[in-house]
Design brief:
248 residues, Rossmann fold, seven-stranded parallel sheet, 9 helices, 7 strands, globular, binds NADP nicotinamide-adenine-dinucleotide phosphate
Length: 248
């Protein structure tokens, strides 16, 4: 028996990086996968076919997670196409780094809207049907930066810390309905997001990690599969760090 056989999962921001790996791992474990993308249209469109090779149903939706109405419509469409929604993975995220003194209002708003407001948008829409089903698993991708802060990332850290507070609050509100809400906090994961960091700084960063290497998207995806599956059926309100011991 696969870990999430016949479940329906929605993953936001799956055209690249961690979201793509999460979608693939869920498909390998038997879930039918709905996913979103925004600007990477070709990659998003290609992913559905790749996922279907695992013998499951998959569909991509071009949808902006920061748009409240679009998120509500997305969940309506997913339930119409797949019949239900069991697992929500709020993964879509961006960075707009800069020291506070130079951070523009636009870069603050963009990061808060895409990283944090999106989690509210999708969770609010998805929990309507999860409450009727008296079952659901919500997994929000935060970051170790949301726990400890990071110079040059005040907007990003605030958005990721906000996700942790949101995750715990939803766990408290919806635990009695058998809806679980957990967060995964990756450390330094090798994706296009971290490609932007210059080589020397990246090497120094890796050396500061107890496991002496960056993480791979698949290693975050494995933690998400665990939290999505019944293996974690009595776990809610938690933040699972996937960081090679970076923040210990
Ligand atoms: P990435 O490679 O830059 O991919 C980001 C994904 O988010 C893309 O698929 C992108 O889709 C999507 N996205 C961006 N804005 C969106 C929007 N408004 N609506 C829908 N989708 C949107 O980033 P990543 O490294 O995989 O990061 C994934 C998540 O993990 C993020 O929440 C990030 O903060 C978190 N995280 C990453 C690391 C790391 O070291 N990489 C560490 C901690 C936490 P399009 O390209 O189609 O627009």
């Amino acid at each position: 028996m696969k870990l999430v056989e016949n479940k329906v999962a929605l993953v936001t921001g799956a055209s690249r990086g961690i979201g793509r790996s999460i979608a693939l791992r869920l498909a390998q474990e038997g879930a039918n996968v709905a996913f979103t993308y925004l600007s990477s249209v070709e990659k998003g469109e290609a992913l559905a076919q790749e996922l279907e090779q695992y013998g499951i149903k998959a569909k991509g939706y071009r949808s902006d997670a920061s748009d409240f109405q679009a998120a509500d419509q997305l969940v309506t469409d997913v339930i119409a196409d797949f019949g239900k929604l069991d697992i929500l993975i709020n993964n879509a995220g961006v960075t707009r780094d800069g020291l506070l003194m130079r951070m523009s209002e636009e870069n603050w708003d963009t990061v808060i809207n895409i990283n944090l407001k999106s989690v509210f948008n999708l969770t609010k829409a998805a929990t309507k049907s999860m409450m009727r089903a008296k079952s659901g698993s919500i997994i929000n991708i935060t970051s170790v930066v949301g726990i400890r802060g990071n110079a040059g990332q005040a907007n990003y850290a605030a958005s990721k810390a906000g996700i942790i507070g949101f995750t715990k609050s939803v766990a408290l509100e919806l635990g009695s309905r058998n809806i679980r809400s957990n967060a995964v906090a990756p450390g330094f994961i090798e994706t296009e997001m971290t490609d932007a960091i210059d080589g020397k700084a990246m090497e120094e960063w890796k050396q500061s990690i107890p496991m002496k290497r960056g993480g791979q998207p698949e290693e975050v995806a494995d933690a998400c599969v665990f939290l999505a599956s019944d293996l974690s059926r009595y776990i809610t309100g938690q933040v699972l760090q996937v960081d090679g011991g970076m923040l210990t």
